[in-house]
Write a structure and sequence with these properties.
The complex is a heterodimer.
Chain A (H helix, E strand, L loop, with lengths): L1 H15 L9 H12 L18 H30 L9 H37 L7 H11 L6 H16 L12 H12 L1 H4 L29 H6 L8 H6 L11 H13 L5 H21 L11 H6 L3 H8 L10 H21 L7 H32 L1
Chain B lengths: L4 H8 L15 H6 L4 H25 L8 H23 L1 H7 L1 H4 L5 H11 L4 H31 L1 E2 L2 E2 L22 H18 L5
Antiparallel strand pairs in B: 1-2
Helix pairs in contact in B: 1-8, 3-4, 3-5, 3-7, 3-8, 4-5, 4-7, 7-8, 8-9
Classes of the chains: A mainly alpha, B mainly alpha.
Chain lengths: 398, 209
């Protein structure tokens, strides 16, 4: 089958080349060609290797694969929360309801995936065609991340605008894939967060209580339905009503992909085994986040519920783990020196908890913390490299 | 009246090729602060235009008598006097806009465009040319303010000059689908729009590089 595809592609090629009928779509052709057929080399089996057969596309594919558990679970959770809120789970979870939950979530999340890819890739293809450059693979991961980090009730046109904004102003103006200062998916979320705050936080954002494509609407909500995420509950002064294990299992309100710790850990394992993401950053964020939370427990205001939130709860709530595993470790925007990675991670872990505790307006601080980390990552690297240079210079003098 | 080549350049240059905001990147601070709505931006643009033109004329008249060592002080006194005048006039005849602009009218004194034009042009040129230069720069500044404020008010509040452009029935609160973009209300977005204008400007004026 693979051979057949390859032949078909070679047959189609003349149409897209200079002078062909479809030359205007050369970027598209080129993009799909490299997506499907390159790199066609692998590292040698024997001997020592300086450079692996990996290119950026394979790296991206690993990240997308690592995100699949989060995506699948997220879809299920969207449906589960819907059934829960509309009282359909009163009689327990049956096999039929399980598939109904998943189907509902699939239909709810799919449009976000489509919108983010169509808008983002559309812009990338246009820019590549306009600048006569190759299509870069950078949007593969970004486009997959965006549906995972927005609340399920965000209107699609808002996601489209935010994606376009992020791809143009956070990526293309800096020179495209590999040159962006900020994580593009997070800029999408930040834009939504600041532009349409009522759709990004609060009680109505995270659970779809109405219908999806006209399916399964019209239910009345159960008594006492709140729809707030644990962190929102804390920030508004009521204690969170979920246990540690609820958070780990992830059947709680939240952005699509961030709720289930097991799914995130599965993804983290794949990223670490394939060495796509750096363990130093994840480790540093988690440890510093816990330490900061412990410090707040001890020295924070007694009447601030978030300050008194135990460290292990901080770790599993909101987007903390998801951000630490998938967002902060983005090799383009993170610090690159080993020592810098520790500092970068520590800054993010610290800031995430500080924002959560000290700013009740922002129940979740992970997004802002990572963006801040992105902004100072080059500075951290510069300091680390400069210190090395100074140390070596001293050694030469001595 | 046919304008000579030089006059044309003095007056029209700052509107496009030598724009004080998007080419010289001066006066950005107030461009971020007063552009949430179109009306204050318009008033601000007119105020700055009048002040630059008038102070250019006055300094140009005095240019041969001002001692070099205290010229900045003299320029500041002239600008401050004009700013106070404009501020009083606004308070008398357009009180609500004056309140919206608050300190930014007073801060015209520190606007880099003013000191820049006085130092770079009025101190060494004749009165008529200085007047045209001041007019051109003021209008160039006003033009950018108006473009930025247009986008910010349209997408941030759905109005233009206070008149509703995007119908009420489109809004989510009224059962529609639309929502104002809160980002437009933030100074950060003004900077991004100015960046966008600079981008478009450079793309059009390629030979300037």
């Amino acid at each position: 089958m693979f051979e057949g595809l390859y032949k078909l592609k070679e047959q189609l090629r003349p149409n897209f080349e200079e002078g062909g009928k479809l030359h205007a779509f050369w970027s598209l052709f080129d993009g799909f060609e490299s997506f499907l057929f390159t790199p066609n080399t692998t590292g040698k089996r024997l001997g020592s290797q300086i450079h692996a057969g990996n290119d950026s596309k394979r790296t991206m594919i690993y990240v997308v694969l690592a995100l699949v558990p989060c995506m699948l679970f997220g879809m299920y959770n969207v449906g589960y929360q819907h059934l829960l809120a509309t009282g359909q789970l009163m009689g327990g979870l049956t096999s039929a309801l399980f598939w109904k939950a998943f189907g509902f979530g699939l239909l709810a999340v799919l449009p976000y995936i489509l919108v983010s890819y169509i808008v983002g890739l559309g812009i990338e293809f246009t820019v590549a065609q306009w600048k006569h450059e190759e299509i870069a693979e950078g949007f593969l991961v970004t486009g997959f991340l965006i549906p995972l980090i927005v609340p399920i009730n965000t209107p699609l046109w808002m996601v489209a605008i935010a994606t376009a904004f992020a791809v143009i102003f956070a990526k293309e103006v800096f020179g495209g894939t590999g040159y962006n200062i900020f994580n593009v998916a997070l800029i999408t979320r930040a834009f939504l967060f600041f532009a349409y705050p009522t759709h990004m936080t609060g009680d109505k954002a995270f659970i779809r209580t109405g219908s999806t494509w006209g399916w399964d609407g019209g239910h009345t909500l159960i008594d006492g339905f709140s729809g707030a995420t644990p962190l929102t509950q804390l920030a508004t002064g009521s204690s969170a009503d979920v246990t540690f294990m609820d958070m780990v299992n992830g059947l709680i309100p939240g952005s699509v992909g961030e709720t289930c710790v097991w799914a995130i850990l599965l993804g983290a394992a794949l990223l670490l085994i394939t060495r796509t993401a750096d363990w130093r950053i994840m480790f540093s964020i988690i440890v510093t986040g816990c330490i900061t939370a412990l410090l707040f427990n001890k020295f924070g205001a007694a009447d601030n519920l978030v300050a008194q939130y135990p460290w292990y709860m901080h770790l599993v709530s909101g987007g903390f783990l998801f951000g630490a595993v998938f967002m902060a470790t983005d090799p383009v925007t993170a610090a690159r020196t080993d020592c810098g990675k520790w500092i970068y991670g520590a800054l993010i872990g610290f800031m995430a908890v500080v924002v959560r505790v000290l700013n009740p307006g922002y129940p979740e601080g992970m997004m802002l913390a990572i963006l801040l980390g992105n902004a100072v990552a080059p500075l951290i690297d510069w300091c680390v490299v400069q210190r090395n240079i100074n140390m070596r210079a001293k050694r030469v003098k001595a | 009246m046919a304008l000579s080549q030089k006059t044309k350049e003095t007056l029209l240059g700052p509107l496009n090729a030598n724009n004080p905001v998007v080419v010289q990147v001066l006066g950005i601070c107030s461009a971020l602060a007063v552009t949430v709505q179109l009306k204050p931006a318009l008033v601000m643009g007119v105020a700055v235009t009048i002040i630059v033109a008038m102070s250019n004329v006055i300094i140009s008249l005095l240019r041969n008598t001002i001692p070099m060592r205290i010229r900045i002080i003299v320029q500041l006194v002239v600008v401050a006097a004009l700013v106070t005048l404009v501020s009083e006039v606004l308070k008398a005849f357009a009180y609500d806009v004056a309140m919206q602009l608050s300190v930014y009218i007073g801060l015209i004194i520190t606007n880099c465009i003013l000191m820049g034009r006085l130092e770079a042009f009025a101190m060494t040129n004749k009165v008529w040319d200085s007047f045209l230069d001041g007019l051109g720069n003021g209008l160039g500044y006003a033009a950018i303010l108006i473009i930025v404020a247009f986008f910010r008010e349209l997408f941030g509040a759905g109005t233009l000059l206070g008149f509703r452009v995007i119908p009420e029935s489109w809004y989510v609160a009224n059962g529609g689908f639309y929502e104002n973009c809160g980002m437009m209300m933030m100074p950060a977005m003004a900077l991004i729009i100015v960046g966008g204008i600079i981008w478009a400007h450079r793309a059009i004026n390629k030979e300037e590089k």
